[in-house]
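May I ask you to comment on the folded chain given beneath this request?
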Amino acid sequence: MVPAPDRRLKLLFGLSFIWAIIVLGGYYLYHKPFTPEQVLIWLRALFQTAVGLGIIACAGGLGEKVLNRFARQSPSPVVQSLGLGLGLLGTISLVVGWVIGFVMIFHAGAEFVRKSDRRYLKRQWDVFDQLIPRLIEEQTFGEAYTLYSLP
């Protein structure tokens, strides 16, 4: 039974890839042309490049969808769709970051108010109130820090 041409091509590609990995692995085993840190640097650079290309592809697709809605043909649709998509992705990431930041600040403030004890805050304010005149007189900040950090 002879495999189909498409299946045969995939099989040959897979075998040649495995053969190349074995040859390069053997070469590395005996010659040590580069360190593992260098390999990780290259792999990280390849990953970052792939992520960047993925973002550009998503931006182009998003811009194409939006431009098709308005159905206006232009001399450079790829450039316009990519620019529009990158602008939309930038705006979306700005809004999402702003909302997440606002929610985090709001929750942190609410948690501080909820957990704050009025007596503790009053005691801290009294220590701080006594500390200011001493700082002005002595101009020593190290002692002031230890006084302020006392409970």
Summary: The CA atoms of residues 7 and 13 lie 10 Å apart. The mean pLDDT is 81. DSSP finds five helices and no strands in the chain. The helical segments are 5-31, 36-70, 77-115, 118-138, 141-149.
